Amino acid sequence: MSKKDKIIKRVFDFSFSLIGLLITWPIILIAWIIASIETKSNGMFSQIRVGENGKLFKIYKIKTMKDKKGTTITTANDDRITKSGKFFRKYKIDELPQLLNILMGDMSFVGPRPDVEGYADKLEEEDRIILSVKPGITGPASLKYKKEEEILAGVENPKEYNDKVIWPDKVKINKEYIKNWSLKKDIEYIIKTIKG
Question: Which of 87, 124, 145, 175 has a 20 to 30 A CA-CA distance from 43?
């Protein structure tokens, strides 16, 4: 992506994240309260993720799981997921607080999903192109693996399958996305995500 492309993308992200927050803040507030009641803790989840140029940032989401130690790999049958969490995940309500991440410049609407340390920050050589852009809420890899939790629930070793099959494929998809970026494609990915 050129410097001009990044400016266009940033202007788009800032404008629509601001509009999105103005429209959805009541939904975010209600979801936050419900999640707080059900999890008996702060209903806003935050976690350190790897962003553009390997910079770490704090991502915000509505909490959909009970506080309980376990693997970072989540499957569809994970007993930590709350009743409201299943609803929030189905309709992507848990992702709405990330509009704030976009507004602050840590994320974009479209791009590689922001991973925990140990994945994107470990990329080498040409694969590090993924770190040249801001991570996104959605993107071509996210759309292909929108049922990722169900896929992982059906394999014997979810972490191994993720590391050896899903993650390398996501890297390949995201590299192609960055090399062939256009605002038109970003808008198409957003529309596909909304349509489900």
Answer: 145
Copy the structure tokens of residue 181: 């970026």
Reading the block at residue 29, the tokens are 């507030």
**What pTM value is reported for the model?**
0.88
Cα 185 to Cα 83: distance, rounded to the nearest angstrom: 34
Q: What is the pLDDT of residues 65-115, one digit of tens each?
A: 987 665 566 776 678 889 999 999 988 999 999 999 999 999 999 999 999
Q: Which residues is 57 bridged to in the sheet?
A: 49
In whole angstroms, how large is the CA radius of gyration of the chain?
16
Residue 159: name the closest of 114, 112, 125, 118 by CA: 118
In the chain, where the domains are located: 3-195
Angle between helices 83-90 and 3-39 (to 10 degrees): 160
Cβ-proximal residues to 21 (8 Å cutoff; 6+ apart), any chain: 99, 100, 103
